[in-house]
Write a structure and sequence with these properties.
Number of helices: 3
Distance between the termini: 46 Å
Radius of gyration: 15 Å
Shape: flat
Strand content: under 5%
Largest sheet: none
Mean pLDDT: 94
Number of domains: 1
Number of strands: 0
Oligomer: single chain
Structural class: mainly alpha
Order of helices and strands: HHH
Low-confidence stretches: none
């Protein structure tokens, strides 16, 4: 096991808290939790690409990073209008 894979495993438990808040929290807390879960997921994906020496896989977390804020804003707009 290399240090990159150990760091991926170490970041999995901190991902559980925002996922739990996104499922159970109030509406503003859910939006913040989704954004935090996205950021932790980006970090996990980057570490995974380095752990397996597949730097070509870095495109997915970069795309997710570019689309996470607009996606959260669209979700907030949807919630404001229809819920």
């Amino acid at each position: 096991m290399n240090p990159w894979l150990l760091s991926v495993i170490a970041w999995l438990p901190p991902l559980a808290l925002p996922l739990w808040v996104a499922a159970r929290g109030s509406l503003p807390a859910r939006l913040v939790a989704v954004q935090l879960a996205t950021n932790v997921t980006i970090l996990i994906l980057v570490l995974t690409s380095f752990a397996f020496d597949q730097t070509i896989l870095i495109d997915l977390p970069l795309t997710l990073a570019a689309l996470s804020l607009p996606g959260t804003l669209m979700l907030a707009l949807f919630i404001e209008r229809w819920l």
